[in-house]
Automatic annotation (TrEMBL):
Domain of life per record: Bacteria
Lineage: Bacteria, Bacillati, Bacillota, Negativicutes, Veillonellales
Name this protein carries in UniProt: Molecular chaperone DnaK
Gene3D superfamilies recorded: 3.30.420.40, Actin, Chain A, domain 4
Length: 1003
């Protein structure tokens, strides 16, 4: 539905603004010629004063000296001469007696009450040709040896002839010294000012240069002087020219002040202010048209809308449909031509959107009414440039330029607020700006939004480009009045999804995925933040449409690895029928973490569904991610160069400024770390810059850039010392290892070692998942020894690394490490592990061809390792054809996130594992003394053979040890333990427990 709009209702505030703008337009018109003349005059004066050392003010008979920002008497008619032998205290009386003037009047010239110059001012005066003649001072037709100046309460002689600079009466040689006053326009020892500032000083003091000096600008100067004399309060310096304070002129005209240079009267201005109808000319209509076409360019840097959207009766603009409908209006804006408004409810797309909110980037897909699943371009709004792969990923980065301006606009409207891309940016723009920023701008970027959400205690400092600082609490503690970066990011994502660049492009149904390791409370707060942000991106006319908004929902879907598993199962042709079943595992190697998922796909027994996906195990490696690997590489490079970083300037004298950096994802102490590890903006930007330089080694190891780095053993990077000093293109040595008699880069082995640890943990977690679930009679999960085959799906961009595939191949071969980890003997049959590469890769296409499946390379409609999660969200959504069953100790909550154990012979001995039930007590150790508690999220802990160094230690002090009792522990949520002291479990019930349990926060 569309309508033609020729009148726009406006609020009292807007009416006042429009009426003020009407008067402002009068002022603009009347002042245009005056401002043109002022601009030319300013340019002329500015150019002349670059070289002119003195300017004669003909109306006052004085000289203006730019170097002292002051006036000097006419040298041809003024000047006193006094012998340097006269004592300082008698100089004034000597002048009065010699020249017949009163002592109090000797420094008055041309009505200016002058004073003796300072030493610095004298030196500047005698340097100009006006006063100096060779080695003498020329005043009033006579020559003298120098000029007098005042220093505190004494008078001194500045002697040009012999260079002597002494107090009067104490000179070794008697010389005739000129005594001349100056008149300061800007205080003692003023520094030179611009020509524009000079022009204002001249006007303020009634000074007019000679016609000869003014040349063709004398008319403009005289006009300026006459107006300044009457209206000095209305002249300002703006953009390096003198202009008029038009806002003040408008206000005072309305208040009753008349102006000679304004053709309209105060009475006319009052009539406009009292009018309730504002009529605008075509010029304004053009401005409104441009504003409407560029509205989302202004908000989110989307393409400018084409002009037909305002005039085609079948199209129309959302913002015109309910212009100020929810506001109390006070008048109307009458347009010279009608514009087409469109009801946004007509553009509702009944498709369902899946959002995979990633650590490094976010992807969005939707299922349309024809059951097609397609990716959405959310990386930028530049659709006019055609299909660009990078536009299908939105880097998870927010840049804060002007927080207060953004938040004021953001809160001012319920939907599609008039925010500015110049205040906050996201996506590729923010990411590129971060890569090119200086250290002092680091805190204006937030590039760890998802990690912050999942961290219990992390506080965040944001400092925008204007210097405004906002300290954010941990995500779960965020209050409504706090800035919510997740909501802001979701708002921009919503603008990329819901806009007028395409027909029917408002979506109301959204499904999101979250990491399996995030608490229920965190996931719900993230969901609500996305809901608020996306809602904010919708038109206000739609928000007020209750019937339409009943469809709006942002809901949590299945976990990220489970979503990917369903996509991969379909794409690789898994189709179990009857009693057949397909066991699967997912190694979801993302940017921040690696998630493990274990399950089985069966044909559904219900006619409502095609399949049943039973998810019976989840685990992960919280610090194994592509970005964290790069952070680890950067950390190792910095550590290798620690001596250089401790003294980058090589200066052995004076203070030494260090080049700091931050920890890797897992803290690793080293000798000297206390001097280099900082939580400062310099440390963070240094880590960021080195990560970006190292990125080719991880993402394109066979590329020219990576090979050049590895071959040279050197990497160049822009770094900042702790005082902010930049060290551009600083050369750092890469970690090295001896290989076949030669020194080679050790970076690949660093990557391999960390990834192998994650894959080892994967198989430990797989065994644990089967061990815990095989006894479940309801869902009949087989024991691991009874399973014939298990598919291993690689997911996430990081899983594309050849290192990942190589290590998996080594582990799953007949005599590989997986056999030992899973507890199978040398000759004992074990499941066949089949590795499936990340979707969308050449390896995946090859695998699909081997399976006889159709292959569609580079087809954006087909899922990839990055988009597979979003596709899977839609496959597994409520109301779809796949039933997802989650088997966890308590499926309503995230399971306990740690293994709790003790140190036994330097090995981690597990007492509680990740699959334990909440609130169940476990005997930990006797209560005869204080004790150490170890915890880790590494699945290898379940083997009881892992070194204690995989864990973190908490020392617990018992106030009153009880030798005949025990310490019992229990998990109460995903990151919290309680412990209590009791002689047996019977004492642990609420009635008999003597003291409240003590809480231990983990993480």
């Amino acid at each position: 539905m569309t309508k033609i709009v020729s009148r726009l209702p406006i609020t009292a505030g807007e009416l006042d603004v429009w009426n003020q703008n009407t008067i402002a337009a009068w002022i603009d018109e009347d002042c245009r010629e005056l401002e043109r003349q002022l601009e030319n005059l300013c340019k002329y004066v500015n150019d002349r004063l670059i070289n002119d050392k003195s300017v004669f003010m003909s109306n006052k008979g004085v000289w203006y000296i730019p170097d002292i920002v002051g006036l000097f008497p006419d040298v041809n008619h003024c000047g006193y001469f006094v012998s340097s032998a006269v004592p300082s205290s008698n100089v004034y009386s000597t002048i009065a007696n010699t020249y017949g003037v009163k002592e109090e009047n000797i420094f008055i010239f041309s009505q200016f009450d002058g004073t003796l110059p300072s030493c610095e001012e004298v030196k500047k005066c005698v340097a100009i040709p006006l006063i100096r003649s060779g080695g003498y001072i020329q005043l009033n037709g006579m020559l003298s040896y120098g000029l007098a100046y005042r220093q505190e309460n004494t008078i001194w002689a500045y002697n040009l002839y012999d260079g002597e600079d002494r107090e009067f009466g104490r000179c070794t040689c008697t010389r005739t010294i000129g005594v001349m006053p100056i008149y300061r326009l800007k205080g003692i020892d003023a520094q030179p000012i611009t020509g524009i500032e000079t022009l204002l000083l001249w006007a303020k003091n009634g000074l007019r240069p000679s016609d000869n000096w003014l040349s063709n600008t004398e008319t403009a100067y005289d006009l300026f002087m006459s107006l300044y004399k009457k209206y000095s309060d209305y002249f300002i310096i703006h953009d390096e020219i003198i202009g008029l304070d038009k806002k003040k002129i408008v206000a005072d005209l309305v208040a009753g002040t008349s102006f000679d240079f304004i053709s309209h009267t105060p009475e006319e201005a009052q009539a406009v202010i009292q009018s309730r109808e504002v009529r605008r000319d075509k010029l304004y209509a053009d401005e409104l048209r441009i504003s409407l076409l560029q509205c989302d360019k202004q908000r989110a840097d989307l393409d400018v809308y084409d002009e037909n959207i305002l005039f085609d009766p079948n199209r129309g603009h959302w913002d015109l449909w309910d212009w100020n409908e929810d506001e109390e209006t006070a008048g109307e804006l009458v347009l010279p031509e009608g514009l087409t408004a469109r009801d946004p409810a007509e553009d509702i797309n009944h498709g369902i959107v899946g959002i995979d909110f990633g650590t490094k980037s976010t992807v969005v897909v939707y299922e349309n009414e024809n059951l097609q699943t397609l990716p959405l371009q959310v990386g930028s709004g530049n659709y006019s440039q055609g299909v660009q792969l990078q536009n299908y990923e939105n880097p998870t980065v927010v840049q804060f330029i002007d927080i207060e301006s953004f938040m004021n606009a953001y809160k001012a409207r319920k939907g599609r607020p008039y925010t500015s891309w110049n205040d906050v940016t996201v996506s590729h723009t923010a990411y590129d700006n971060l890569s090119n920023s200086s250290s002092d701008k680091y805190y204006s970027f937030f590039d760890s939004i998802k990690q912050w959400c999942g961290t219990d205690k992390q506080r965040v400092k944001i400092k925008d480009a204007k210097g405004v600082i906002k300290d954010l609490p941990p995500f779960l503690e965020l209050m409504d009045e706090d800035i919510n970066p997740v909501e802001i990011y979701a708002y921009y994502l919503g603008l990329y999804i819901n806009n007028m660049l395409q027909e029917k492009h408002i979506f109301l149904q959204y499904i999101m995925s979250f990491p399996v390791t995030y608490d229920r409370g965190i996931r719900e707060k993230m969901r609500r933040s996305f809901e608020a942000g996306i809602r904010k991106s919708l038109p206000t006319a739609l928000l007020s449409n209750e019937e339409a908004m009943r469809q709006f929902i942002v809901q949590e879907g299945v976990s990220e690895p489970a979503a990917y598993a369903m996509t991969a199962l379909e794409e690789f042709g898994f189709d179990p029928c009857g009693d057949a079943e397909n066991y699967y595992s997912v190694f979801d190697f993302g940017g921040g973490t690696t998630d493990f998922d274990f399950g089985v796909l069966r044909e559904s027994e219900s006619d409502r569904y095609d399949y049943t996906l039973i998810h019976f195990g989840a685990n992960g490696d919280r610090t194994l991610g592509g970005e964290n690997l790069l952070k680890l590489l950067a950390f190792e490079v910095f550590k290798t160069n620690k001596e250089t970083l401790l003294n980058p300037s090589g200066n052995t004298d004076g203070p030494q400024h260090k080049i700091p950096f931050t920890w890797a994802a897992q803290k690793q102490d080293f000798a000297g770390s206390e001097g280099l590890i900082k939580d400062s903006q310099e440390a963070h930007i240094n880590m960021h810059n080195l990560i970006e330089e190292l990125r080719p080694i991880w993402e394109e190891p066979e590329g020219e850039t990576a090979q050049k780095m590895i071959d040279s053993g050197i990497i160049n990077v822009n770094l900042f010392a702790d005082d902010g000093m930049q060290y551009p293109n600083m050369a750092l040595v890469l970690p090295a290892v001896q290989k076949e008699g030669n020194t080679a880069s050790d970076l690949t082995s660093i990557l391999r070692k960390r990834i192998e640890r994650g894959i080892h943990n994967f198989f430990v977690a797989l065994r644990e998942a089967f061990d815990k679930s095989a006894s479940d009679e309801t869902y009949k999960i087989k024991a691991l020894s009874d399973v014939d085959a298990i598919a291993v799906f690689l997911a996430g961009n990081s899983s594309k690394s050849s290192i990942v595939t190589a290590i998996f191949d080594e582990y799953i071969r007949e005599d590989g490490e997986a056999r030992t980890i899973l507890g199978f003997g040398k000759d004992q049959p074990m499941p066949e592990f089949v590795l499936y590469p990340a979707l969308g890769t050449e390896e995946a296409y090859k695998k699909q061809e081997e399976l006889g499946l159709p292959v569609q390379k580079d087809n954006l409609e087909k899922p990839t390792g990055k988009t597979g999660v979003a596709f899977g969200l839609l496959r597994c959504r409520e109301g779809g054809n796949i039933k997802v069953i989650d088997i966890t100790p308590d499926h309503t909550k995230v399971q306990f996130q740690y293994y709790i154990g003790r140190n036994k012979k330097r090995k981690f001995r597990t007492v509680i594992d990740r699959n334990t039930k909440m609130n169940q007590w476990y005997k930990f150790i006797d209560a005869s003394a204080s004790f150490d508690l170890l915890y880790t999220d590494m699945p290898i802990a379940a083997t009881n053979t892992a070194p204690v160094t995989i864990a973190r230690q908490i020392h617990v002090t018992l106030d009153k040890p009880v030798p005949d009792a025990y310490v019992y522990i229990r998990p109460i949520n995903s990151h919290t333990l309680e412990y209590a002291i009791a002689k047996n479990e019977d004492e642990l019930n609420a009635e008999s427990m003597k003291n409240e349990p003590f809480t231990i926060e983990l993480g």
